[in-house]
Amino acid sequence: MPIGIFARHSGLTPSALRFYADSGLLRPAEVDPVSGYRYYGAGQVARATALRRLRELAMPLPSVEAVLAAGPDEASRLIDEHVAGVVEDALAVRRRAAALKSSLGGVPGLPIAAVKGPVLADAIEQVLTATAHEPGMPVLGGVRVEATPESITLTATDRYRLSTRTLVPAEPPASTWAATVRGDELRLAAPGIRRGALVRVEAAPHGIRLRAAGRRDQHCRLLPEEFPDHRSMLASLPDVTTRVTVTKDALLSALEEHPGERVALDVTDRGLAVPSPDEEHSDVHLPATTTGQPLLISFDLTTLYPAVSTAIGPDLLLDLRGPGRPVTIRSADRGDLTTLAMPAGPA
Hints:
Helix content: 25-40%
Order of helices and strands: HHEEHHHEHEEEEHEEEHEHEEEEEHEEE
Distance between the termini: 64 Å
Strand content: 25-35%
Mean pLDDT: 90
Structural class: alpha+beta
Number of strands: 19
Largest sheet: 9 strands, antiparallel
Shape: flat
Strand order of the largest sheet: 7-4-5-6-19-18-17-11-15
């Protein structure tokens, strides 16, 4: 078919088809040696359409060529890799734009706290496991940062988990301050924060500024939406009815080997067991110290596993409050990181 008809079938303009022919991505099936007219075959429509769609993703020509030459699995991986890069670049542009806007007025940042970089990076990565990206509720993807003269606290919640970490700053905060920071931007900033011996957190218009000696300042934007009232929720928790102390690695191993998407914890005076959901697998019995009432309680694996994996220290303390009530998961000897996990319903 002539180039004009092929253009209508593929959605590419004739000029784009000439460019892709010259670049070797989509050569015509035939070129008239006298007139130079280009003709394409019906079998080339699919490749032309795929090429157009890849370019609509702002994919550069070398990457387009690699995708078109790859099998389905490799092509999907290359597309995901490209999209991740585009998203990361967009976030970086947004952060730089926010930093630029905050500097236009010449207003200096308000000092909030100075924290050891590796400690702050760990805290960010730990609480970020309790964030979620939900359309219409961007605040669930944020981290609440609260500073008092004694401490700086990071909190996140996706409504099924709540994770909070309290840090003792290297230098006491100058004043009380609180705001909700975009979690995706904190996640990108964490590697740089980790490499700073001391990171100074400053409040700037529309965001926070993270400053470390010898490193470029990083800027994370704020979320204007109201953060869930986590303090009232924590204060209203029922009394603990069952307490379990268990080795973190042993519980993690049992969760990793569990065949189902929902996992139950069976607490008795003999210890802690993870029942199997089918006859092909055996129940897993874990050495544990238990006190209080026996309890069988279940969780979605995607809720319980992150809460356990991010806990600090070799031993965990599980405070249970009965069926359907939030469970507190924290270190058996350190209380600066606390995670609440909601059960999934009857075991």
